Structures
1.
Amino acid sequence: MKTSLPVVGLMLGDVTGIGPEISAKLLAAGALQDKARIVVIGDARVLELGMRDAGVHLQYTVYSGIDEVKWPRSDVPVVDLKNIDPAQYRRGEMSPESGRLTGDTLKTMIDLALAGKLDGICFAPLNKGALHKGGWKFHDEHQMFAKLTDHSGFFGEMNVIKEFSTFRVTSHVALREAVNMITPERIACAITLAHDTLRAAGHAAPRLAVAALNPHNGENGLFGDEEIRIIRPTVEKMRAAGVNCDGPISSDVIFLKALRGEYDGVVMMYHDQGQIATKLLGFNKGVTVTAGLKTVFTTPAHGTAYDIVGQGKADPGALAHAFTLAARMAAARRASQAGAAA
């Protein structure tokens, strides 16, 4: 294993869900060792639970701190926080205490990343409700990450499938509130975030499509004029600044164009405008990225799948894609930082 590879931490997800199982399957496959130096951050007992669920055996070594871990190596290093005893939680249902400890584990990983000891974080599925009820009072993990990394400025969720990626002007807010939040400033920030993040993910010159808000682009103001007043002028301003973007494009055709390969990314106005398309096309393969922060965060786009917990049939495909993307983005960030320092 090359010591020049980025160090990516893997969090095993909420212990009540399928995270431990798909993590064990991913690690046992050993297919990602050439993409990053993998280190599991969590509780070794949770990893053992995942191995039992998955029916796999995994060679790993336990450490009390990340500074003890050395590369190259053939087994999996586990920084054992000894903070989650799987026997204490009912599986297949939401647990506030498990949510609290999931948040604690993520905070530990963020602290390691801010200290320069992790280049990226990939986490198996968690439960937003459990996080919130467990004391992490945020609408979603992205807001939590922004707070814990002391971020200021625009950031957002990026959803990735093989065919294209999506970005949001507004995210986890009520639809009535989202409409009022669609401003030239937020649209410009979302387009910039999409451009910069796709470049970091390997697209040298990203092609972006910007969605309309109203049906049929508002039919020239017949039912809604946000396209005329807000969206189109912003897209034209961004294009004049050198960003390759088109829009507004009506929601009922924008994803067909992206699916045909005309665009690398779609900037949507609100959450479900793009989530329905990406989950329909790649539910077990999609990846969610927290874009715009100083730390790389990726996770499968699917959830904890309580209905199949412990049955050994959870698909690790999306987690594999998430880890691969985390490794790629972390490597690109390392290269950029090295270039800036030279």
2.
Amino acid sequence: MKLQPASRKEIARISLGVLICDFLMIAVLFLLSLVGVGTFSVSRVLLGALCGSVVAVLNFVILCVTVQSAVEIENKRKMKQRFQLSYNIRLLLQAAWVVVCALIPQIHFIAGAAPILFPNVVIYFLQARGKLISSSRPSPAPSGDAEPEEDPEDHLNSFEV
């Protein structure tokens, strides 16, 4: 499946944000080591940050692909199942990576595990600054008993990253 331009744009923005967060995390870990909190091994920290960032961005790419493929599903129950399966796979991927960080001594645990949270940080930042792509659908009418239909593309901004 080919990614839509909007998905590619969001993936690029999340990737850039994760990279910025990586630099900030590395700087904080270095400064903490200077004051005697923990040790700073360049190779361990960089390996953890690099691999953790790959896992975090891959997680977001899987989310984008899921949203794109789910939009084509007419049956709401099947669409919900697709989202749930994707969520479970992405959660398992993240948990497995944290376990790998804990078990492999060549990876700095914090530098490896923290990047999993960085896409959320970037999304919160972009949302606070009003920089997220907004949906083009009109807002629902304030009155009426009918519940508005959910747009599957809204799940891109749902913080399940």
3.
Amino acid sequence: MNLTYGISDKPKFGQLIVFALQQLLAILAATIAVPAIVGNGMSQSAALFGAGVGTIVYLLFTKFKSPVFVGSSFAFIGSMTAAFAGGVSMSVGYLGLIIGAVMAGLVYVVLAIIVKFAGVGWISKLMPAVVIGPTVSIIGLSLAGNAVSDALDATYDMNLHSTICLICALVTLFAVVISSVYGKKMAKLIPFIIGIACGYVVAAIFTLIGTATGNEQLLIIDFSQFSNMQWYPDFTFVKAFSGSYDFGEVGSIGAYLGTIAVAYVPVALVVFAEHIADHKNLSSIIGQDLLEDPGLSRTLLGDGVGSMAGAIFGGCPNTTYGESVGCVAITGNASVITIFTTAIIAILISFFAPFVTLLATIPSCVMGGVCITLYGFIAVSGLKMIQSVDFGENKNVFTVSVILICGIGGMELTFGSVTITSIACALILGIIVNLVLSRKSEKTGKSEEKTDK
């Protein structure tokens, strides 16, 4: 696609701040949702700080050539919950978060070393366009339910509240697409800020009317969050080492470390597949193969070490965000300095409770309207990858079919505390089907050659 700003381009300072804020809005909901889901007193501000730190580490390892923000990974929610469940005190649980993130990060480091010596040629053979394309689509399609659920505030019976939520979501959606398609200059580059602002204003109007009339169905924005603001990030490493506890109380430090390893290491191996899919997608958007330059070994190191650094502060292992990739695709802004500035802003605002709280009050229906476009662009990016695939061959049809159906169908497998996501299941099955059918094609080709002779 034609980029308005390339990887090394530097927008003017004022524009840079606005672009960075837009990236922040795109990734904010998911980044602060993970600690909220895990609970146990985890700090959303600290998670935002950790995401900023993790992104800077990632950019340093990738030599500022990969324009993507990394934030709290949903894949590790079960692992983080296991860290708390395995300890007898909250401090042990927070220490477990750090230990687990280090273990997961080390998996990435080991994979990076393997890739450094083995190269990336095997990945292209293992995951050609017919495999990686539909997998990228699944990343977007698997989140479709979340976007629609947010747009309707998870209520599908269309009562007054869900109807108002849908109105706010549609206002946001059309503001985004109209700004992106018909906007000129700056408006075309900040469709999400425009969309969120429009949706928020409409939601605020309904909320004020609801407050004045006492109609709870019209209360879309929860302004009560301002009365319970967290004024500073509650860093994970502080909580981990602030309590007094005896590891002997855990029963066995070895058993606890084993629990953490089982909870984190297999998930890191699963997320590795999603890491490749995200970078393949981003590569197709910016027109540069990131697996070659800066190289998969560097992106893995950036992701792994960034996860370690981010978890020390926020407790959450990080991962590259599809929302960030979608933002790059829609706006055409692949400037890495924009991502770097986003990371700096994330770190700074984590100390400004009123601003973090203001962002947190953006209603889910408004973010749902934005995510319909973001997730849709991810899905379409994957479809673009398979434009050159020959669907006259059944092996390609079967490969894509298996990936799409398993991914959309939600084939998610759980073994104890380890969950293999639907994306990973779809990719693994797609790889196997493609290898089996390609082997058959190779034999058929050889037989035809002998017949010709």
